[in-house]
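Archive record
______________

***
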Amino acid sequence: MKNIVKKFLIALCVLTLMLSIITIPVSAATGNINLGYSGTANPGNEITVKLTVSYTKGLYAYDTTVRYDNSCLKLVSLVGSSNDVVANAAGSFGISLFDASAPKNLVCQMKFKVLKVGNTSVSVDSGIAGDIDALSVNIPAKSLNVYITAPTKSSDNTLKSIKISAGTLSPAFSKNVTEYKVTVPYSVDYFSIDGYATHSGAKVSYKDGPGPNIKVGTTVRVITVTAENGAVKKYNIAVTRLPQGTTSSTSSADTSSTTSTVEPEENKLETVVDGNKMTVAEIIPDDVTALGFEKGEYTFNSVHVPAFLDKEKEVALLYLLNEENKGALYVYNPATGIFSLPCIINDAKHYTILPVTALKRDQILIDTESVFNLSTITIGEQEVEAYIYKDDALSDFAVVCAINSEGEKAFYRYDKKENTLQRYVAEYRAEDTDAQATGTLNTDAIVVLVCAGVCLAAIIAIIIIWAARRRYYADDFDDDFDDAEPLFVKETELDTTDEGETLTENENEPDIEENDAETDTEAE
């Protein structure tokens, strides 16, 4: 019986091993996919959507279908490691990527022209890729939100210069100074002015008072500048023609003549960004938006200006104008006094990357001095402030601060290779380095563990059932044996009675007569 049990267990173990070997190839591994876009999503512009498929063992081929809203986007071109791009029905197309060197990443760049304002998306169907061992790799589906906004209309309503036919402006011209004086001698009876707008889209108009021919005394000339978004600014030039017989020296002494130079008043809204002179705008165009922020007011250098603020009013986006009067939103960090362009990541959500110092340090739940270095990283083409891990094993990751489209502000772990964000909630520990670097278990390993667990449970159940049945039958057999009649009884013929009946004697019973004779002999 023991040999039978032993053979049964050996056979069961062999069967378990065979099942594990058969099961592993059936379950394909899973790769990673990432979608992101670059460029300004305004109607008439072009954006580039980048598709990256990756797998640690390397991929040589990948097939999928890309879908988009052709009312908002128009496919222009595709560039990347693709040897076959097939255009299908409007709003979708198939791609087949191939690289014989089997790199870890297969990349395709899709260029779209933006057609109209609206929120749309570009999605990729789930697909199958082939790894370097010619095994199937599942690539999940992915969707990318694209937020299309109207092109920004300039609010620049300044002049870059004023040209006058006689005399000199006082004070010296500055685009932010709107009040000027000019004094000319009596001999000048014709005075013309020309203003040149800083922005090409702005319109310039004049109010010449009585006309270019001036009379003795003061005449105010007005230059009106209207920006693209309708903002208006007026420059007033008070032109004084001296009476006949008045000398230039007298005019200089009495009327602050054009020979004197007055320094322009300091503009508190001027700043310097990356070495370029810029000005904080006092008007933000109505079509300028910032997802996750609310429009409000911010005090910059004691001047109240419009701004986009987060819910806690800790972070401000100010609208800055360059010397060409082109505007854009900038993140202002009051702790450092530095302006920086907001870095945008469009994944499943819209994220605006902020300086990490925009959140209080105790909100990160870790000892930043011992785990991180405060530095900067490059996301896309922009440099942002971030916490960099000191541990070399985590060099591909950093912790950044971001606000999503719902206005939720938090720390995120940024993957430099995949250009993805994951909400940062766990405290970093040195002993977790290997686990963080390794990542999740391989699919094959999970299959083996599951099969082994199922088989082990089956073996234990079979042994328990077999032992219980063996004990049951053993007890039943013992009870039957005790109640049974003798099986081996030998019958011997004796004598035949007068009636012809044959008497039998059981050899198992003792011979009474012989025993009695022997007893009598011993007694004598």
User: Anything to note?
Assistant: The helical segments are 2-26, 248-255, 368-371, 433-438, 443-483, 512-523. The first helix runs from residue 2 to 26. The chain is about 20% helix and 40% strand. The CA atoms of residues 94 and 348 lie 22 Å apart.
